[in-house]
Structures are given as structure tokens and as C-alpha cells.
Amino acid sequence: MEICLPSISQAISFKLKVSLEKDANGVHFHYPLAMYYDQTTQRLYVSDTGNNRLVSFDRQGTPLKEFDAAGQLKGPLAMVRDQTGSLWVVERPLNSLTHIDLKAQRLKRHQLTYQGRTVLVDRLLVWKKHLIVLDRATGEALLLDRSLKVNRAIRPKNKDFRGFFDIKIKGDWLWGLENISARIYGINLTTGKEIFVTPDRKLSLPVALEIDRQMNIYILDRYLKKIFVFDKNGRFRYSFLDEGATPGHLNYPWQLLFVDSELLVLDEGNGRIDIWRH
């Protein structure tokens, strides 16, 4: 299926490549809440939260395997694969950062603390040999060392910072979408340099961001059920997608992910991931 979405004022279009909504056995997703692309294996992993499992796909969108840690996995919210090949999974009902050693078939759960309080683990990233977790309680991104101790909290110097709602890693830069305001912060994890972008259009409920190779900023609005695109200075360029149940439409979308030139849109309400070719 191909649905072309011409931009409002630019010669840009997206074509719907495929919709992912079930595993190789035909079992449909139930409240999918996260996706992760492993560049090493070229596999896409979907956290099928309602079914307590992870489902993998190849680069063309063909379903491969499902994994539930022999029935032990509980409400996976996010996952990454580290340099050793192990999986790290956020289990929301247990507030656990869970390490899964695939070779040894072992699962070990960890509860994180920082400055005497419990960390509410949410989004999860890998940067070099480090894990970065988004603490939903404070909106800070926490850089972990190998022992899972917090090496440092990552937040902009802005005094009225409201906390991150979504975070992404691009090279040595951590990019964060600020809660409610939709302001964008870029923080270089090596040099400490900061970039601050204020979109020039008010949004309703921004929940996810992505950035393409031209430094255009994509913000997903869960309430308006649209993707808004801004240039690197925050100037509005165009928006696309609308509310609906059919492929190419949204019903309570939750996450964005660029894989090369393809934009993946996770739609919790419709229980699927739409892959758009740019």
C-alpha cells in the first residue's frame, strides 16, 4: 500500500511502506508502547506491552521472533541492545531496568535510585558504553555507569526547565522534548554545548520527537494526532497525518523513530507501527 502525503508548501512527500501490527503467527499487538532499531543486526524490536513480549522484524518489516523471557517479562515499556549483545528492558509494572543475558538465558531486575529517591524509569537509550534512562518523576536524563549507578543527571542550564518528556541520541548529542511546552534542547554529552529551540507553533500534547539529517525537527502530538515539522530554528514547515483507524491515520500515537530515511510512527491506539518512506 502506498499513500502519498504531499507537503503544504514544500516538494516533500511521504509514502506508506508497510504497517506492522502482528507477529509471524498472526497475533496482533496489544498496546505497543516502544520501538528500537538495532543497527548491528538490522532488526526492529517492538515492545508489545499488553502482550508482555518483544517482537522483532527485519529491515523490510517481515516479522521474525517474539520473546517473553519464558513468560517472565512484565509490561515491557522500552528496550535497547548493548555492545555485549545483552538486552535491557524497562518493565513498567515493576519499575525495573531489567538485564537479559540471551546466551546464558538469565534475567536480572534492577531498581534504580538517585540522591536517595527511587528513579521512575521510562525511556531508555544507549550512548557508547553507557545506558541513559529518562526519569519520569523529574524529567531528567540519567547517565548510568556499568554498575548502574548514576554518573550524572543531564538537564539544560535553563532555570525554568520543566523536564524532558522524550529523548533521543544523535551521535554525541542528546536531544530532549520538554514536557508540555514542546521546547527542544540539544546537549552535547562530550563538550557540554547546548542548543535551545522554541517551535513557533503552539501544540496540544507533544509526546515524541525526531530529527532528520537536515536538522528538521519532527514533533508528534498525541491529542491532535498529527506530526508537526519545524526547521532547525523552530520555524513551522508543515504537518501531516490525521485521526482515523485505517493505515496512514492515527489514534493516540506515542513514539517516532527514524531508521535511515524511513520514519516509523508507533500508534498505541490503533495497535500498529506505520513505516513511512521519505
Automatic annotation (TrEMBL):
Domain of life: Bacteria
Keyword field: Glycoprotein, Signal
Name this protein carries in UniProt: 6-bladed beta-propeller
Lineage, top ranks: Bacteria, Pseudomonadati, Thermodesulfobacteriota, Thermodesulfobacteria, Thermodesulfobacteriales
